[in-house]
Amino acid sequence: MNRQEAIESVRANVENENLVKHMLATEAVMRALARHLGGDEKEWGLAGLLHDIDVELTEGDMGSHSKLGADLARDLGASEAVANAILCHNETHGVLPETTMAKALFCADPLTGLITAAVLVRPDKKLAGLEAESVRKRFKEKGFAAGASREQISKCCDIGLELDEFIAIGVEAMKGIAPHLGL
Ligand SMILES: [Fe+2]
Questions:
Q1: How far is the CA of 35 from the centre of ligand 1 (A)?
Q2: How many whole angstroms from 51 Cα to the centroid of ligand 1?
Q3: Residue 158 gets which letter from DSSP?
């Protein structure tokens, strides 16, 4: 499966444009993390791009979310490693991420939400002027973007990254595709 096929499948299964953007953001962060950590950029990117492909199909049922996504990814021809990373990103199944790629997806997913929320409270609502430091401050505000699990983001330590560095990589990665995110 190439990226174009993955995008087409995302588009076929996801109507909500914000959810598509969330997956594009996660793809960009995963690719940046792969470059940083010596992972396979294509594989890590696919895991990010496809990780929430089943969200609308599973209609909020966390018991099937990410199981179906992993199956869809396999059907598309994704590797077992990608399917496993997708499965593990939902804690409900109790399958802990073991590979570095799966661990990266687990912490990158909520980071994109925190960064997006930090952009949207800026007057210009643009990524360009966003500094990693201001995302770090938002991280400490418990009530801010509460859905972006701080505990999960903090798992960046499992891939050997300090929180500040992890946030900086995420912000830079999302800036790189800002037009596609509408930010
Ligand atoms: Fe997600």
A1: 21
A2: 6
A3: G
What mean pLDDT, rounded, does the chain reach? 97
Quote the CA–CA distance of 78 and 80 in Å, as a whole number: 7
Beta carbons of 86 and 70 less than 8 angstroms apart = yes
User: Around 46, how many Cα atoms within 13 Å sit in the side-chain half-sphere?
Assistant: 26
CB atoms within 10 A of CB 16: 11
What's the pLDDT score for residue 114? 98
Distance 47 CA to ligand 1 centre (A): 11
Contact between 89 and 29 under an 8 Å Cβ cutoff? The reply is no
Question: Where would I find the H helices in the chain?
Answer: 3-13, 17-37, 41-50, 55-58, 67-76, 80-88, 100-120, 132-140, 150-153, 163-176, 178-181
Query: Residue 10 Cα, ligand 1 centroid: separation in angstroms?
Result: 13
pLDDT in tens, 24-81: 999 999 999 999 999 999 999 999 999 999 999 999 899 999 999 999 999 999 999 9
The span from the CA of 162 to the CA of 132, in Å, is: 13
Task: Please give the distance, rounded to the nearest whole angstrom, from the Cα atom of residue 150 to the centre of ligand 1.
Answer: 14
Tell how far the Cα of 124 is from the centroid of ligand 1, in angstroms: 25
Q: Which of 32, 50, 22 is nearest to 167 (CA)?
A: 32
Predicted TM-score of the model (pTM): 0.97
Tokens of 118: 């930090």
